[in-house]
Amino acid sequence: xxxxxxxxxxxxxxxxxxxxxxxxxxxxxxxxxxxxxxxxxxxxxxxxxxxxxxxxxxxxxxxxxxxxxxxxxxxxxxxxxxxxxxxxxxxxxxxxxxxxxxxxxxxxxxxxxxxxxxxxxxxxxxxxxxxxxxxxxxxxxxxxxxxxxxxxxxxxxxxxxxxxxxxxxxxxxxxxxxxxxxxxxxxxxxxxxxxxxxxxxxxxxxxxxxxxxxx
Length: 215
Description:
215 residues; mainly alpha
């Protein structure tokens, strides 16, 4: 357990000022939660580990850009989500590359429908791009509530906004996802973001007690 009494923002400031142990302490405090964010967003331990590493390197280098308009944990969370989405995009592109068919006639070969495989990878890429295209505040809310399964109350506490704001952001984000992904309605897609965020949009999920934000 950490014995450093400094708050997260103080540690980040100390890191920027040249304290060689401050960022390490910050990572020690929050690594488990950030790992969970990466794992839930990517759905793959190997990709999550790479995404978390990318995110921590980015946070280390960009610490001076932190302006203090949100909690340090929220800032770190956003960097991890963005790194995870980048990993998903790369994975989708890699998976879409055609496989060599040198072993086409090997006995006992399992035949896989290439069209179905490609379609699913294309769907994953489109969903990832749609999620990444959302405004940052809406994406944060969608990832927390629809991807990671947080309650509205917990998401509001984490992002430092009222619960109504979370509901409003989720509602607007889901509506945009539903519009972007409308052509997928009749496809047999099993992407978790499509199932949870898109389906909720199609079902007409609306914000209750929301704020007056627009966008």
